[in-house]
Design a protein that fits this description.
198 residues; alpha+beta; Arc Repressor Mutant, subunit A
């Protein structure tokens, strides 16, 4: 039978150098083992309940997803994850269900958006972070609707670049985009961009 340290190293290997308190609990590893390995300098405590190997590359996207599991990466942050903008986010944007207490979220350099339960689930997909860790992100059609919906118009250059890339993409799904736009009440804005680009 494997000892706790061996199990921890297996989990670290499977998770690109990260282990969470949840991983340890599922593997029936006492939390003190993580503390002991941190004190010994083998692990580094990244945040509450998140540990990494001392030489692992930090992945802010993954940490935020772990910490705020109800948050879905959206708006310009989702564009970046989809490789539809070359602007690295200065802060991150996540969408939460209406009623979610976002006080703690805002203290972590995260812009919190709220969506009704009717629209919160619309377009959620799994993608990898730039470091290769799993994330919950809105698909590109939902993301385009979200960025044109922003009051005061958002960043026009970012929106134009994303729309041009989408228009030229082989995987574009105009029917899905229009369907989302109707549901999210941005159909006229989306059609205006599409008329120019298609």
């Amino acid at each position: 039978m494997k000892n706790h340290r061996e199990l921890i190293h297996e989990i670290l290997k499977e998770n690109k150098g990260f282990i969470t308190a949840d991983h340890a609990a599922k593997a029936e590893i006492p939390r003190r083992c993580l503390s002991d390995m941190t004190k010994a300098g083998v692990l580094y405590k990244v945040d509450r309940g998140i540990y990494s190997l001392s030489d692992a590359w930090e992945d802010d996207f993954y940490f935020l997803q772990y910490r705020f599991s109800k948050g879905i990466f959206s708006h310009e942050t989702a564009l970046y994850i989809h490789n539809m903008t070359d602007r690295t986010p200065i802060s991150y944007t996540m969408t939460f269900p209406a009623g979610y207490n976002t006080g703690n979220v805002r203290s972590q350099r995260v812009t919190a958006k709220l969506a009704t339960m009717h629209n919160y689930d619309l377009g959620i997909i799994d993608l990898m972070s730039p470091s290769g860790n799993p994330l919950k992100v809105y698909d590109i059609e939902r993301t385009l609707c979200d960025i044109v919906k922003i009051k005061h118009g958002g960043d026009i250059q970012v929106i134009n670049q994303a729309m041009k890339m989408y228009a030229g993409s082989k995987s574009r799904d105009i029917a899905k985009l229009i369907g989302y736009a109707e549901r999210l009440r941005v159909k006229s804005k989306i059609l205006t961009y599409m008329e120019v680009l298609l």
